[in-house]
């Protein structure tokens, strides 16, 4: 397929549309992506957009065809992926409305199709540092320039969903020092790494998971509350995406692609 885009964006809960002049469907060996792909131009760069839950939020997190989504991006020529998502906070200092550029994840999902490499070529991809350092740094710089409260690092624990955490689970996650909780970052970021693409996480904090211990006025999360806070901050996210995309250099200065070459055996 002729190269159609260089940067890919996944839309999460509350982010289902990106203005563009063209929509297209892409077939993959793994089935259909979550929705039609919107192609547009931002900051002089061609961008492909997929709402990971579908534009009507019809696909719950554990049923997303992550492999098809990432493969479609690769087919279009994408080499860098931006993964904004709605997320909960596990720590008092990470507040609703803040952004976190996560640099680590903890996988608590189960049964998801999380690799392209089922053989015969054995491939072991390093995920010691799973997110692109170059794009992460740029995201922090651009967020600060826009006056957005941003945390430049953080660990996201990815739960299976679609249910939210119990109080005991949330307390355990928080006790580990993890900052963010989400349902979609895994295996999305790992599949991007397997295809040699850079990936940056942008977590928009919408809630305090099951509440904030010691503060009865802050209650457990609901889906409606997540969407409400996300919508309140949607303009900030779109501004950040525009600034980040425009600033991404044409030639990667990172070594994300090298992990794919180093991981192949045979």
What this model shows, in words?
This protein has 266 residues and is α/β, with parallel strands linked by helices. The protein has seven helices and 13 strands. It has a domain of 182 residues: Nucleoside phosphorylase domain (Rossmann fold), CATH 3.40.50.1580. The strands form two sheets. Strands 1, 2, 3, 4, 5, 6, 7, 9, 10, 11 and 12 form an eleven-stranded mixed β-sheet that branches. Strand 3 and strand 4 form a beta hairpin. The two termini are 27 Å apart. The model has no long low-confidence stretch (mean pLDDT 91).
Provide a count of the helices: 7
Biggest sheet layout: 11 strands, mixed
How confident is the prediction overall: mean pLDDT? 91
Low-confidence stretches: none
N- to C-terminal distance: 27 Å
Rounded Rg:
18 Å
CATH architecture of one domain: 3-Layer(aba) Sandwich
- Can you identify the CATH superfamily of one domain? Nucleoside phosphorylase domain
Shape: globular
Pairing-aware structural class of the strands and helices?
alpha/beta
What can be said about this structure in brief?
This protein has 266 residues and is α/β, with parallel strands linked by helices.
């Amino acid at each position: 397929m002729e190269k159609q885009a260089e940067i890919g964006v996944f839309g999460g809960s509350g982010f289902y549309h990106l203005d563009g002049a063209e929509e297209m469907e892409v077939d993959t060996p793994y089935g259909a992506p979550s929705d039609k792909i919107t192609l547009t131009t931002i900051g002089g760069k061609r961008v492909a957009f997929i709402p990971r839950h579908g534009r009507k939020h019809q696909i719950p997190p554990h049923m997303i065809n992550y492999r098809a989504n990432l493969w479609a991006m690769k087919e279009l020529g994408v080499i860098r992926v931006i993964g904004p998502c709605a997320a909960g906070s596990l720590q008092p200092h990470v507040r609703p409305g803040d952004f976190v550029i996560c640099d680590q994840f903890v996988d608590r999902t189960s049964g998801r199709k999380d690799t392209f490499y089922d053989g015969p070529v054995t491939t072991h991809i390093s995920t010691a540092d799973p997110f692109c350092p170059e794009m992460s740094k740029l995201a922090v710089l651009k967020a600060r320039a826009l006056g957005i409260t941003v945390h430049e690092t953080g660990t996201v624990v990815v739960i299976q969903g679609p249910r939210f955490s119990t109080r005991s689970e949330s307390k355990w996650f928080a006790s580990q020092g993890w900052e963010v909780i989400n349902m979609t970052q895994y295996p999305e970021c790992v599949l991007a790494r397997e295809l040699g693409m850079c990936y940056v996480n942008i977590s928009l904090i919408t809630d305090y998971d099951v509440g904030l211990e010691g503060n009865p006025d802050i209650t457990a999360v609901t889906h409606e509350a997540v969407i409400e806070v996300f919508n309140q901050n949607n303009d900030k996210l779109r501004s950040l995406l525009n600034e980040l995309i425009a600033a991404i250099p044409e030639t990667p200065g990172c070594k994300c692609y090298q992990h794919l070459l180093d991981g192949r055996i045979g």
